[in-house]
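User: For a benchmark we're assembling, each entry needs the component sequences followed by a predicted structure for the full assembly. Here are entry 17's components. Please fill in the structure.
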Amino acid sequence: MSNEHNESLTLETNAFEYFEAAKDRFLPGISADAVILGYDGQHIKVLLLKAQVDDIWMLPGGFIEKEYDLDIAVHRIVKARTGLEELYFQQFKLFGKSDRNAHKQEHLKKFQELSSAAHEWVNQRFITVGYFALVHIEDVEPKPDLFTDICEWVALDQIPPLILDHQEIIDAALTNLRRQLNYLPVGINLLPERFTMSQFQNLYEEILKQKLDRGNFQRKMLKLDILIRHEKLKSGGAHKAPYLYEFDKEKYHEKVRNGIGFI
Amino acid sequence: MSNEHNESLTLETNAFEYFEAAKDRFLPGISADAVILGYDGQHIKVLLLKAQVDDIWMLPGGFIEKEYDLDIAVHRIVKARTGLEELYFQQFKLFGKSDRNAHKQEHLKKFQELSSAAHEWVNQRFITVGYFALVHIEDVEPKPDLFTDICEWVALDQIPPLILDHQEIIDAALTNLRRQLNYLPVGINLLPERFTMSQFQNLYEEILKQKLDRGNFQRKMLKLDILIRHEKLKSGGAHKAPYLYEFDKEKYHEKVRNGIGFI
DNA sequence: ACTCATTGTGTTCATTTGACAAAATAAGGG
DNA sequence: CCCTTATTTTGTCAAATGAACACAATGAGT
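Assistant: Structure for entry 17:
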């Protein structure tokens, strides 16, 4: 086992090598950041990383390999943090303000001893493309990357100060998600295999930040004819046990294709 | 007046200089393309350019100045082609396929004698960010750019073969436009100051590619309370003259802010 | 004055929405 | 074991919306 000092050394060595090789491996001046969203039955959460060299938090991100499509690079980034091979993700915006890495140099002062090639790489102007991903939170094993020591789920109302414009990126992702909510397969990608109607409704209430009528929500979803009703929930709650539901995936995706209409 | 040979020489000299200076002026590896849309009372049209050196058509586009925001570069591009200072435009997607400039080298073979710096610029991998703009077609004076000799409005169903993935970019713009139609100020940006209800309806039918019920459309729009009714249309048509309408801009934008609900 | 294509307004019926109430159900406490 | 309680499920009903169609008004041309 390595002690902290060794780990730190290893990190910096790797970071040096990483930035050194970046110019040859990656497209210049562009990065990708992923807003990875999960739902634990109570709240929407986003996967965040904490930098080793500072107390600052950030979104998972990375660069684009010269020989691959944009989507492939993003898939690699999300897979590396979550362990998930199959996932739903979608591009939503390119962030191109000219001053968006103004604060980065502050954060990267710890890397002053970078070679000039590496220094040049980290100090160029970056534009970044924002993606959001919807994942089953219980299937994820969060893994930090080269520059971070913590990777964990954070509820949307408990997000700490983030690097650069990452808070803005999260906000834009959520706005985008809300606008697409009518034709986006958000349920099938965020809920576990089997779920109660309350969980389903709460998911929409979390995203929309507004209460919905219980009876009306239930009737509407059942009428869509996309749910399979199973037997009763096991014990646990001290009240009437609800049914467990499961998506009829064929019918569900058929509805999504026709673009209508959950809310 | 210069003859064609001279113009061609001038073009190539400028193109040389342009590409030569590009590395210093612009961000590497990224371009912007604009789907500029207008409505002539009959059809949605898109502003296209025809290359001088080939019979290939393309979207207006350009590169991003190193010191400016993305949006500023796009505004400059659209303003240069249309002459418009104020306009509505919106980013909709970043196109990042690794093979998206595969055909470009074919098209640019005419520029073989470029200096190595210029050659390196045009042959790098480009990702491009797609924007769409909504403009008043009657206010536009189409102007070709350095590399093109024709700049004109083309109806959507008469688009010739386009360079690279530009057709895909147009399709994506229209899909995006349709999805936002409920909360997008499309009418105020595409229709002339005064318009008839038929024109207004036809605009939506063009975008949606589907017929709408005349009576219902009219009643719905009037009920939104965003229109000012003027006196009768002058002569011309051989039938009942329709009213002319104008947007009550304050009320219109108020509705747009609240996000509801044209269709 | 009459025709006619088009515009503006009405009517009708089915469907959806919103708000609320009632019935059903399981767990826990006496 | 019966009753309470919290929660789920289904029901009701008035109001709003949507879709399809009908009819009246208008103004240019014959």
